[in-house]
Amino acid sequence: MSELFSQLGIEWHIIVAQFVNFAILFFVLNYFLYKPILSVLKKRREGIIEEKNKTEQLEDKLKNAEVLKEKVLADARAEGEKIIRRAEITAKELNVRLIQEAKEESAKEEKNTRKKLEAEKQKLFEEVKRDIGGLVAEAVEKTVMDAFDKKTSERLVEEALEIINADRKEE
């Protein structure tokens, strides 16, 4: 076989040397280049996966935050509407109460004014009655004095005063 290799121009010691060189080169490249490159690629792949996971988590958190924000805003709107409705109801109740109080106060004032007017009317009536009584007494006395005696004229004056008082009571 060595003849066959020699005829073909193949030298076995060169092939063995090349094989040894290849094995040394393979182990050196594998140890110094291939493993570090694979290690860097593995770390890079892990970093990319980790970043992708973090990104997904952040996106989920962002979506949750958006949902929470919308919920909080909806709750705030609902609470604001409740507050506005309560304020409107309170304002209406206050308005009704103030109107009622004003009506009651007005009724009291009207009643007091009517009482005062009635008292004033009664007072004036009494004054007028006294004045008219006195005037009637004087008039009757002057007219009747000449025609009747003193006792009869006093009786006529009293009757006239009673008639005036009776007419005033009927009014």
Features:
mainly alpha, 171 residues
The gist of it:
The protein is mainly alpha-helical. It is built from three helices and no strands. It has one domain (2-170).
Q: List the secondary-structure elements in sequence, H or E.
A: HHH
Largest β-sheet summary: none
Instruction: Please tell me what the overall shape is.
Output: rod-shaped
> Between the first and last Cα atoms, what is the distance in angstroms?
166 Å
Q: What is the gyration radius calculated from CA atoms? A: 64 Å
Number of strands: 0
GO molecular function: proton-transporting ATP synthase activity, rotational mechanism; proton-transporting ATPase activity, rotational mechanism
Protein name: ATP synthase subunit b
Coiled coil: 48-127
Organism: Candidatus Taylorbacteria bacterium RIFCSPHIGHO2_02_FULL_45_35
Tell me what the structure shows:
The chain is mainly alpha-helical. The protein has one domain. Helices cover 96% and strands 0% of the residues. Helix 2 packs antiparallel against helix 3. The longest helix has 136 residues. This is ATP synthase subunit b.
